[in-house]
Structures are given as C-alpha cells and as structure tokens.
Amino acid sequence: MTGGIAAYKTCELVSRLVKAGYGVKVVMTEHAKEFVTPLTFETLSKNAVIGDMFAPKPHFEVEHVSLAKWAGVYVIAPATANVIAKIASGVADDMLTTSFMATEAVRIVCPAMNTVMYNDEATKKNLALLKERGVLVVEPGTGRLACGDVGVGRMEEPAAIFEQIDRILTPNPDFRGKRVLVTAGGTTEDIDGVRYIGNRSSGKMGAAIAEAVIRRGGEVTFVYGSISVPVPEKVKAVHVTSTQDMYDAVLKEMEDCDVVIKSAAPADYRVKQKFDSKIKSETLTLELVKNPDIAQAVGERKGNRILVAFAAETNDLIKNAAQKLLKKNADLIVANDVTEKGAGFNSDTNIVTLLYGDGRIESLPIMPKTELADTILDAVQSL
Ligand code: PMT
Predict the structure, then answer these.
(1) What is the b/e burial string over 358-381, where b = at least 16 CB atoms within 10 angstroms of the residue's CB?
(2) Distance 260 CA to ligand 1 centre (A)
(3) Mean pLDDT across the chain, nearest whole number?
(4) H helix intervals, 260-349
(5) pTM flag (> 0.90)
(6) Which residue's CA is minimally distant from atom 35 of ligand 1?
(7) What are the pLDDT digits (tens) for 3-42?
C-alpha cells in the first residue's frame, strides 16, 4: 500500500482475500500509514504489517527477499503516481519498492490519483512501461474523486481487484464452497510404554489430495496420523494417534463435510492388553483385536456426502477393491497394488485403478501422487 485516500478500499480487498482463504501480508509505505493504521491491516490479515527495512527481527532473514519469494501475487493498491514512477524507473529505496522489484510473482498495480496526475505524460509513460514488462495494471474507474474533481483516477473496486487476483491464484475453482475431509498417514497402536504397531504410510497421498482441494478453491479438514511430510497449509488440521482416535475424529468432522476421502492407512488391529511400562520378558505373544472400520462407519452415515475410499492390496486387486466398494458403501474406490514398483506406501508416484459405484473401472498409468490427486478430484466431480 502506498499513501492515497483509496487505502480505505484496501481494507475490504484484504478482508475479501482472507475470507477466501488466501494468506495476505501487507507492506505499507510511511505515507500509507498516514491514511490507515497498521493495526487495521494486522487485524484483517492476521499477519504483522511490514514496513521498516531495518527493524530488528527475531530471526535473521533478508525480509524484502523472503517476502518476494513468499508471494504468489504482489499487488500495489493503491498505487500513487510517485510509486508508479519509482518502480517504472527501478528505484528501490524502501521495503515496498525493493520487495516489488525482487519478486517473481505476478505483479499487479492499481493506480489511484487525481485525474490530471493520471493523465500526465510521465504517469502515462510509466504505466505503459510497466505493462510492457508484464505488470498487470488494473485501470482506475471514473467518477467523483476525493479532491472533488470528477474524472478518471478512482482506484478500481475491491471486488474487481479480488476477482483478478483470485483468477490468477485459483484458475480452476471447481471445489469452491465444498468442504472435503481427507485422512492421511498411518495410525499407531501402543504395545507398551515405548513400542507400537504402525505401518509405512507417509501421508504423501493424503497431503497431495488436500493441497489439490485447496488449489481448486475448496476447504479441507485434514485428519492425520503418523506422517513424514509437512501438514498442508490452509487446512483445518486434526492430529490423531490410534485408529479409534481417527474413527472419533472422522465421525465428528464429517458432519461439516461434503466429501470424505480416506487415503489414510489405519491400523486394522490393536493389542488387547496394553502395558504402561516397557515389557522385558524373553518371549512375547500379543493378542490383537480388530479395530473399527472407519470408512464403513462413514458409508453407513454418509447421507448425501460422497465417500472415496482406498484399497491397498497385494493380490486380486480388482476383486478385493470391488468388495470394499460394496462393504463400505463408497462412491469411488482408489485401488493400489502396493507390491508394484512406484505404487503405494511412501513413494512419490502411484499406480491405481478407479472403481466407480456405477460399475465403471478405469486403470491409470503410473503418475506422481500430486497429479493423481487432481485425477481423483476430477473423478469426484464426475459422480
Ligand atoms: O501415505 P502414502 O505413503 O502416500 O501411501 C499411500 C497409501 C498406500 C497409504 C494409500 O494409497 C492407500 O492405499 N491408502 C489406504 C490404505 C489402507 O488402509 O487400505 P485398506 O485396503 O486396508 O483399507 C481400505 C479403506 O478403508 C481405506 O480407505 C482405509 O483408509 C479404510 N480403513 C481401513 C481400516 C480401518 N480400520 N478403517 C478404515 O477406514
């Protein structure tokens, strides 16, 4: 933000972006702070406002560069004639101009100024130069300006600027308005004070699905057990340990969801008798009891929700997966033969066959889990 009366409109723009789930960091010039206080933007964006190049930081980082790398879109709204001139001629003398120059994000400028200043040859040339360099200029509207003049120069309305940003960051918003519950990773079952039963699920498949839903404009509740990848950003994250924990979390969280995707690998058994301290006997026999089937419980209560379950098989892939489709009352089964190279646990790729409730079967080639995530979401949309 630079110093212009249109700064009040930027409050609405930030609010819209945050409501749509985007992360927003506000950079204010010293002049911008004369119009609206940083506190307003800290409250709206839920992030500290950035302004002072040389303020002491809790961790060392070159802030104008890290900020430039963080952004997917860099918007200057409002953009004064002065700042437009600076960025057009390569002046970088504060946090805003340095980070704008350092970013590889899509750059947007929303001019706001008096009509005469906007029509001035220098401003026209500077804006033309910025456009030539790939900066997107959101042209100002015409009407009564704050100075009382009537003409061009009013910063475009926040809704229109939001739409431009949204279109760039979410080109395919087909999951907008949908809340998707994704389970990921393995659950663990305690044996004693230090040991547990677990499996090799890394959570890569579930995380890829969660990220794809977010990219497509949806909201995600991410119920995860033991995983070796970071929890995706912008999700409602619920951490669980045992299969019973995951069962409780999924049944509670599914209430607010339209789609449930069960990519986790819950432990099918738990020990009948758990020991608090470390077992030290020479030999050990564990009696295991069956855990509840979470997907089946979802299938029994799903109502209008869509249920996607996985099937991790080592033999008779289609036969076993078809049985799971029926038993769990699923709409779609993603079946992987986990003995195949490049498929199943912990790999970055997967090889799956999709079994639809209407009998269709679609075998897919090996592909990255990130790409498969989108293919699964396309299949959900086709149901
Ligand atoms: O996490 P990654 O390393 O990326 O690996 C991905 C994966 C191999 C874990 C994934 O592709 C996969 O196959 N997930 C399902 C693993 C599994 O538990 O499959 P299953 O055939 O045992 O179970 C069938 C379905 O029932 C699954 O959707 C599973 O989540 C669900 N289930 C299983 C047991 C249980 N007690 N409750 C369940 O809901």
Answers:
(1) eeeeeebeebebbebbbbbbebbe
(2) 13
(3) 94
(4) 294-301, 317-327
(5) no
(6) 293
(7) 999 999 999 999 999 988 889 999 999 999 999 999 999 9
Condensed to tens digits (0 to 9), the pLDDT of residues 123-144 reads 999 999 999 999 999 999 988 8
Tell me which of 11, 110, 147, 257 is the catalytic residue: 147
3-state secondary structure of 56: coil
The Cα 102–Cα 11 span in angstroms is 25
- Rounded to whole angstroms, the Cα distance separating 207 from 182 reads 8
Domains of the chain: 7-169 (3.40.50.1950), 179-382 (3.40.50.10300)
User: How many Å apart are CA 276 and CA 360, to the nearest integer?
Assistant: 49
264 CB within 6 A, ligand 1 = yes
Q: Is the CB of 208 under 6 A from ligand 1?
A: no
For the chain, the 3-state helix, strand and coil shares in percent, each to the nearest 5, are 35, 20, 40
Q: List beta partners, residue 182.
A: 222, 261
Q: Please provide the DSSP assignment of 343-354 as one string.
A: -STT-SEE-EEE
Beta sheet of 332-337, edge-to-edge order: 236-239, 219-224, 179-184, 259-262, 306-313, 332-337, 352-356, 361-363
Q: Is 147 a catalytic residue?
A: yes
